[in-house]
Amino acid sequence: MIYPLGGYKKVCATFDKLTLPRYSFHIEHSSILEKNHMAISVGTKAPDFTLKSKNAEGVSDISLSSNIGQKNTVILFFPLAFTGVCTTELCDVTAGLGQYSDLNADVIGISVDSPFAQEAWAQKENIGIILASDLNKKTAADYGVLLDDLLGFGATSARAAFVVDKDGVVQYSEQ
C-alpha cells in the first residue's frame, strides 16, 4: 500500500482494465505561479522524450517510446532534488513501487536537476524509481508543466502527474 503524506492523497482510476494507484497533487496559488500553466490533457498523445539517467551502471537514455506497446507509464514531474516535499513524494512512490510493477507500469520521475545530482539524491534517500534529467527543460515545456521561476531559482518543472497507457495516450493528467 502507498501511504501518501502532506498535501497528497491516493486516488485510483481505471483505464484499459487496469487500476493504477496515483497521487493527486495540489499546488497552492501564490506568487510562485505567476502564469497560468496548462498541463497536456487526457486523451492526447503523450509527447515522447529521451532523457539522461544515471545510476551505478552509468549514464543511460530513458525514453517514453521504449514503453509504447509494452507498458503503462506513470510520469511524475517534480521541481528539485534534495528538497523536503520532493523527497517525501518520491520516497512514498518508492515504497509502493511493487504495486506499479505488478500492474505492468513503469514510474519515471523527471526534474531539471542533472542526472548526477539525481543519482546522489536517490542514493542518499533510497529512492528506487527511475529518475530522468530534463536539464534543458524541453520535456517539462512539452508537457505544459514548466514554471518560469521558482522562488528565484529560475525555470523548473511544476509538480505534476501523468499516466500514459501502452498506446501512448494520456489517461490521467494533474498539475
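The record above closes out task 2.4. Task 2.5 opens with a second protein, given below.
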Amino acid sequence: MQDGKSWHFISQKGFFHSFLTDGKQLIASEPWSLFNDKEREEDWRISGLQHLAVHQQSQQAYVLVHQGPPESFEDPGTHIWVYDLASGNRINEIKLERMAISIAVSQDSQAQLYSIAANFNLPFLFQMYVYLMEGEKSLEKHLKLVLDVYELNSGEFLRSIDEIGNYPSYIQVWPATVKAPMIDPVFYWTISIILALLWCRAAINKLQASQEFAELFAAYHLVPQSVAPSMAMILPCVELLVAVLLLLPATQIEGGLASAALLAIYAMAMALNLLRGRIHIDCGCHFGGSQTISWRLVTRNILLACLSLILLLPVVTRLLSVGDILLISAFCFVIGLSGMMLQAISNLRSAAMGAE
C-alpha cells in the first residue's frame, strides 16, 4: 500500500518490505519480521484480503493477524497488531469484536479503524447445526458482512454499519487532503466562557434598565416604532440564550454562530447610523455610563464576531486536567479584569468629553 512516497508490502511469510520512490528510482529498505520466533511457533500469521493499513501522521502500521496453518493466510483475522514503522516494534494489540477480512484507517484528526467483519443471523448452536447437517455452503445465506468501526489509538469498539453490500472485500478510505486547523480545549473553553459572560452582562444590563434600553433601541430607527418596545424586550432574552448555548458542550458551535451573527447585526446597526450622521446615539453596550457609537465600536464588534467564529474549528480531543481548568480560570479572570478596566477608562473619557 502507498504511504506518501513510500510503498509497503507484507510477504506471505510475515516480512514487512518498504520501498521509497521519487518517480525515477526505487529504493528498498531492509525487510523486518512481524513475528518473533515464539509467535511463529504459535502459528501467528497475516490474515484476510486487505491485511495492512498505515496511519501516515503517526507512522504506525496496522496488521490483521490470526493463528493458523500456512495455507490459512487469507482466513479472517482475529487481532490487529500495531507496529511503529521507524523501529519495527509492536506497540499495541487490538482484539476485534468479530473476525475480519479487511481493514483500513482514516487519516483525519479523529482517526478511526475500519474492518469488514462477518455477522451471522443465527445463534451459535444453530450455526453448528446448519454446518453439521447441511454443510458450509448453507451457512453463506445466513452470513451478513458489516463494517465495524473502532477508535484508532485506543482500539475501542464504537459501532457497526449494516447493509454494506453483498460481498465487499476491500475498504477505500477517502483521503484527508485538507487538514483543518484545530484549537486546544483550553483556548476553546476560554473563548466560550468570555463570550458567554459578555452576553450575560449585556442582557442583565438591558433587563435592569429596560425602559432606558427601549428608548435607546427606538433611537436607532431600525424597525418601526410600533414594534421597537417588543424587540427591546426580546433582545436580552436572545442574548441570554446565546450565553447558554456557548456554555453547553453540545451546542457551542451553534452558540458561536449565534454570537457572531448577533455581533455582526450590532456592528451593522451602528455603521448604518454613523453613515446617516447620527453620531450622538448611545451604543447601548452598558448602562450607568454613556458611550456614543463610533467606528471603533464597529471594529470591536467585528473582531468579537471573528472570535466567535473560532468556536467552529475542531477541538483537539483530550481530557481537561486540573491545571487546564486553573489556566482557563486565570485567562478568564485576566481578560475580564482587563475588559472592566478598559470600560472604566472609556467611561471616564466619555464623561470628560461631555463636561467640555
